[in-house]
Amino acid sequence: MVCTITEPIYRRVFDNGLLLVSEKVPWSERFEINIGIKVGSAYELPEEEGAAHFLEHLMWKRETRKESLKRSMLKDKHGIWSNADTNHDVTYFTLWGPKDKINIALNTALQDLQNFEFDKREFKREKDVVLVEIKSSLEDDDLFGYTSLNEKLFGESTLGRVREGRYENVSKLTQDKIIAFKQKWYVPNNMIISVVGNFDQKELSELVSQTFGSLKCKQVSKLDIPLHSCSKDSFVFERVGLELTHLHAGFQPVDLAVRTEEYADLIRSILHHGETSILDQKFREQEGLVYHASSELYNFFKQLSYFYFYLGCEPHKAKRAESKLNKVFDDLSKGDFSRQRFTDAKTLWKSKLSKKLNEDLENKAEALLKSELKGDSEDYRELPQRIDAMTYERTREYAREFFSKPYVTVKLVQE
Question: What stretches of 121-184 adopt beta strand conformation (E)?
């Protein structure tokens, strides 16, 4: 199966700098809108720490009676659902619903951006909600391990911060700081709107022009985030009540071109997808060392990426599991994996990707937006064909490049 391309992707930059990208999907009975604001936790000044996530809550997740009634009416009367999320480099606002309600969704999103009002009581209530979230996350062992690894891997860089911000700093945020943060970053020339569904592309463009075209542009600061030059190192943290040992590992970030990043995704598939994956075979099937093994490829700021690994195992197996993981890293730094493993992973990755992009509107809208955020000039729907062209020799070459970098490990053990 390949990703079906029936309509060209429509792209328009409005006079205020807002970018609209859309794809018509004739078989769909609903729409999916992704609004990406190019700001996240990594953009925050020290005195703004936690502002991006807190602002997302105030914009789209407030639990006041008025906001709850508005969201209920959208769902019950119009069938429109919404969600929001904050990452290190972008804040997302998503709406989805029946195809004939797209104008209501766009108007709702515009009203949220324009009519950003809250009183002191609402501000305090939402701050309390965010602080409870942060406190709860500190009790989550997996999340603690991941955030500790990021701090060690990125050092003083803002990429090493917890996206929600640290409790003591978020508690100091004021209404004036949040409003100033919104005015600085939530401007049309710092936004991308991606829309996928069954609609007329030109009519959609005019609808966006009538709504978001009214927003005023403003100069946005360029962001320069220095990367921490890490060396191979290992850290141990003791945690109360921990029954299993948690091992987190991450490789020093590398600046990847878009096509190179696709090879990194393929290597992740070799590591973690399917019955022939390296992590499954070496840790679960052959050795019975771990109850869970996974790998991720995290991407920031267009082409900045790093590999992340997690192993969870019984304490008496931890030393052997860690040794085995180091051996996997050593093999990868030599490009040491079989041609059959490469072929199987490539076939499986292409199959899963094609299915997602053909059948799931949410994935299509997300892929369309991320393609623009990365500055990818090629059609995201052609990725399955690009996967076909990937070679074993080139994949091994990239593996040697990625895994010859220093890596950091964080181990959580029983206190």
Answer: none
pLDDT digits (tens, 9 = 90+) for 137-193: 888 898 899 889 988 888 878 888 888 999 999 999 999 999 999 999 999 999 999
Q: Which of 194, 345, 195 is nearest to 265 (CA)?
A: 345
Residue whose pair of structure tokens reads 């019975």 in the numeric block: 288
**Spatial distance between the Cα atoms of 87 and 306, rounded to a whole number of angstroms:** 15
Q: What is the largest CA-CA distance in the chain?
A: 64
The alpha carbon torsion through 81, 84, 85, 89 (nearest 10 deg) reads: 120
**Pairing mode of beta strands 81-86, 254-255:** unpaired
Q: State which H helix or E strand residue 150 sits in.
A: helix 141-154
CA distances from 410 to 35, 91, 143, 290, 373 (A): 35, 28, 12, 16, 31
Tokens 């267009």, located at residue: 302
Residue written as token pair 């609004």: 35
